[in-house]
Amino acid sequence: MNSTETTSTEMSSMATLPTQAAAPLTVPTVAFGRFRDGSAAERQAIAARIVAAGETYGFFYLSDNGVARTQVDAAFDAARAFFALPLADRMACRAGEKRQNRGYQPMFDTQQRAEATPDGKESFDMGFPFSADDPGVVAGLPFHGRNTWPDLPGFRDTIEGLYTRLLATGHDVLRAMALGLGADPELFARQCQRPSTNMRLVHYPPQDQIAGRTDKGAGAHTDRGLITLLLNDNEAGLEVQSLDGTWIAVPPQQDALIVNVGQLMTRWTNGRLRSAVHRVINASGRERYSIPQFHHPDYHAVVDPRDLPLTKEPAFDAVVAGDFVAKGFGADRASWKTP
Ligand SMILES: O=C(O)CCC(=O)C(=O)O
Ligand SMILES: [Fe+2]
C-alpha cells in the first residue's frame, strides 16, 4: 500500500502510537561461512552484502569467519605478556630499519594530523616473513624488513599463526568484494601474494593515564591499505563516522571480526567503497588491547580504478601501492620519517 491509500482511520491510530526513539545506528553483520562452502548464489548474495556495507558504512562485522576463538585468545594473552615486559625489553624489539611497520612503537609515536595530539597507544607490529635475501629486503624497500621478536616462550608461533590465518581470511573478503563489484574475484587477492600486510598488537592504557598528553587512544583517521581485519578483547571504544557525520559506536561482537575499508580500496573502486573515518577513546578505565591486520597489496601493485567496471569517470589516478602508502605514513608516524 502506498501513502495515498492510507485511510483516515489508520492515520489517526498511527498518530496515537507512542513515539519511538530512533534505533541507534549499528554497522551491519555479514555471516561469512557460506562464502567458503556455499553455492554460487550464496556466494553472490554474501558478496553483495559486503559491498553494500562497504558503500554505506565502510565497516562491517564478519561472523562465522573461520578464525578459532582459542587462536584469538592465545594472541591476546601474548599481547598482554608483551606489554607487561619492562620498557627496555619492549624497546629491544624496535625495528632495525625505519619505514617497516615492524617491531615495537612506544607510546605517542603516531600523530594523525599535524594539529592533532598524538595517539595514546603503544604497539608491536610484524609482517610478511620475507627472507634475508629477498630483493626488497636487500634494497631496503619500505615494508620489506625482517620481523623482530621478544624473548617470550610461544610468542612468535602464536602471532605468526594468527597472521597466516587472518591473511587467508582477508583474501577471501577481498574475493567477495571483487565478486560483489562485478570484477574477476581474484582481481585484488592475486596482487597480495608477497604483501606489505602488517599485523599489530595494540595497547591502549586507560584514558586518565594519557590525559596529560592527549585525549584519544587513536585520533580520527582512515586506514591506508585495502581492508583492515580487527580483533579486540571485549572493550568498547572504537567509533566510526557515519555518512551524516555522526559517530557510531562499534563495540566488539563475540566471535566476529570487524572489517573496514582502507584508502587504497576506495581508490581502486573509484570511491564506491568508503574508507570511513574512525577513532578510539578508551574511556572504560581498563586497559584495552586490539589486533588489527592491515591488508596491503604487493609493493609494486598498481591500484587503478580502470581495473573495475566503471559507473562514472575515474576520480583517482593509478598509483603504485607501496609508494602511495609509504608517503602517507611518512607524514604521520615518527618511526616512518626519513631524516
Ligand atoms: O583498536 C581499534 O579498535 C582500532 C584501531 C585502528 O583503527 C587502527 O589501528 O588503525
Ligand atoms: Fe584504523
From TrEMBL:
Catalytically driven reaction(s): 2-oxoglutarate + O2 + 2 H(+) = ethene + 3 CO2 + H2O; L-arginine + 2-oxoglutarate + O2 = guanidine + L-glutamate 5-semialdehyde + succinate + CO2
Pathway(s) it belongs to: Alkene biosynthesis; ethylene biosynthesis via 2-oxoglutarate
**Could you tell me which residue ranges the Fe2OG dioxygenase domain spans?**
195-297
- Coiled-coil residues are none
| Enzyme class per UniProt | oxidoreductase
Enzyme nomenclature, EC number: 1.13.12.19, 1.14.20.7
Pfam entry (one): 2OG-FeII_Oxy
The record's annotation in InterPro entries points to:
DIOX_N, IPNS-like_FE2OG_OXY, IPNS-like_sf, Iron_ascorbate_oxido_reductase, Oxoglu/Fe-dep_dioxygenase_dom
Spell out the protein name for this chain.
2-oxoglutarate-dependent ethylene/succinate-forming enzyme
Q: State the species of origin.
A: Pigmentiphaga litoralis
Q: What lineage is this protein's organism placed in?
A: Bacteria, Pseudomonadati, Pseudomonadota, Betaproteobacteria, Burkholderiales
